[in-house]
From TrEMBL:
Pfam families: LRR_1. This is Putative leucine-rich repeat domain, L domain-containing protein. Gene3D superfamilies: Ribonuclease Inhibitor. GO terms for cellular component: membrane. The lineage of its organism: Eukaryota, Viridiplantae, Streptophyta, Embryophyta, Tracheophyta. It comes from the Eukaryota.
């Protein structure tokens, strides 16, 4: 079913369907409707009675989403997008064990995404984009299959599948009152740079002394030869100290 434009809160009432066609044991609704399921617009001509769907999209419904919707355990698809709903997503939605498509996008919903939604094993399409949701996105095998477009437009949401470019999450401020971001590419590590400069200068000075100071060069060679002769005495008998220096 799909509701018409309304300026009030969403209120449920039961209206029996009176136009049906029986073929054997199957019952079809003869009403033709256009609905959006899993992000696709579909024109339904004949509808099986077991096909349960609620589409209240693109209306002016406001207020909180009724938590009683979560008791519709046989519901296949729920589309409440394009309204003005406020408040949190009811945690009772975790009871809709048969739900495959849930679209709550383009409302004014706030708070966190209920972790109960991560238990909906049949949920293959979820869209909560462009709300005011906050907190970490629940982690589960099911949620890992949803694209980042399912969560975009919520500045307070963070965690996979959102990337660092679409979320603003900074670590706690340091003692000097500034926030440090370990992923920032503009920050210079002066400790590493000072070590590299010191090593380069020391190495350059040592090489320069060996090249341009004969006294230092002879002293260095004698020290190295003494180490070699102490380690390998046979070298001293074979070459001699003077022979190694010439």
């Amino acid at each position: 079913m799909k509701a018409n434009e309304d300026d009030g809160n969403l209120v449920f009432s039961y209206t029996p369907l009176y136009t049906t066609e029986t073929i054997g044991m199957d019952v079809y609704y003869r009403d033709t409707i256009t609905t959006i399921i899993k992000g696709l617009q579909l024109d339904l001509i004949k509808i099986l009675t077991i096909f349960t769907l609620i589409d209240f999209s693109s209306n002016n419904f406001s207020g909180s989403i009724p938590k009683e919707i979560g008791e519709l355990k046989a519901l296949y698809a729920l589309n409440l997008s394009g309204n003005a709903f406020t408040g949190e997503i009811p945690s009772s939605f975790g009871n809709m064990s048969s739900i495959e498509s849930l679209d709550l996008s383009q409302n004014h919903l706030s708070g966190q995404i209920p972790p109960q939604l991560s238990t909906l094993t049949f949920l293959s399409h979820l869209n909560v984009s462009y709300n005011q949701l906050t907190g970490r996105i629940p982690t589960s095998t099911q949620f890992s299959t949803f694209p980042n477009t399912s969560f975009e437009g919520n500045k307070g949401l963070w965690g996979p599948p959102l990337t660092w470019d679409t979320t603003i999450v900074l670590p706690p401020p340091t003692f000097n009152g500034s926030s440090s971001n370990p992923n920032s590419g503009d920050e210079i590590d002066w400790d590493i740079i000072s070590v590299e400069i010191g090593f380069t200068c020391g190495f350059g000075i040592a090489i320069g002394l060996l090249l341009f100071c004969k006294r230092w060069r002879n002293w260095y060679y004698r020290a190295m030869f003494n180490i070699l002769f102490n380690t390998f005495p046979q070298l001293e008998h074979r070459f001699g100290t003077e022979g190694m220096l010439t």
